[in-house]
Amino acid sequence: MDVLSDVVAELRVGAPHASRTEQRTPWDNRFEATDAVGFHIVLGGSSRLLTTGGQPVLLGPRDVVLLPRGDAHSIAAAPGAAASTVLLCGAYRFDRSRHHPLLSELPAVIHLPARTRPPAPLDAAVDLLAREIETTPESGAVGPLLEVLLLYILRTWYDGQEQPTGWGAALRDPDLGAVLRAIHRDPAHPWTVRTLGARVNMSRSTFAQRFTDTVGLAPQTYLTRWRMTLAARRLRDTGDTLRVVAENVGYTSEYAFAKAFKREYGVAPGRYRHTPGSPDFAATGSTAE
Known about the structure:
single chain; 4-stranded antiparallel beta sheet; 5-stranded antiparallel beta sheet; 289 residues; 12 helices
């Protein structure tokens, strides 16, 4: 079980999109704030990224930049640049009501300079996507390649953190990473703090404290929120009955499931299924059964 790819798959909604453009100096592209996660890749030439209140980020050939929060920004010709710049730009939509530490702990700008990052596999994903968009932009392969690109961007960033914190630190921790994989592999299992701690030979209290200190959520809170994230997607994307949805995320009682879901999303699961858009996530201290 790859926990990162599991989280990305569950939180992302709709189809990603991307385009390849050639910009000739002088040029300046501006992007309004959005709920999407945007990216820019310099395929040739150079450019400069500006965000409100942030420092300018100079982008060289094959540099990758991701904007997880969808902040307003501009990307323009680098100072003194005299040549054209080729860009690959796109965006992903995330349902931000499905709360997860992945979305809250990422910085406003992730810059992965080509000169300092490992050459593979991110570069391979960039090359494949760029070639497909240039030669066959309507190809059915573009969507899957965009999904792979996002995963490798995030993996490269997490792997490059010398002192990761929060959920990212838990991913790299041998014990906590094993617990996260267990939860994501089988979210419907009747996990308790005691059984999760036992998987990594920790007492209940020691495990609970270590998980909470690292992730910023108690283990039972993380488990319940993840179950509700899975349930929210199934309510929107399938015609499964509430009983089936409840069983798939570990609830034998439809009533208990509905109560937990409403505590997290602020509405009953039936109403959530039929309400356009996504209600605000209720950031409450929920617990697992």
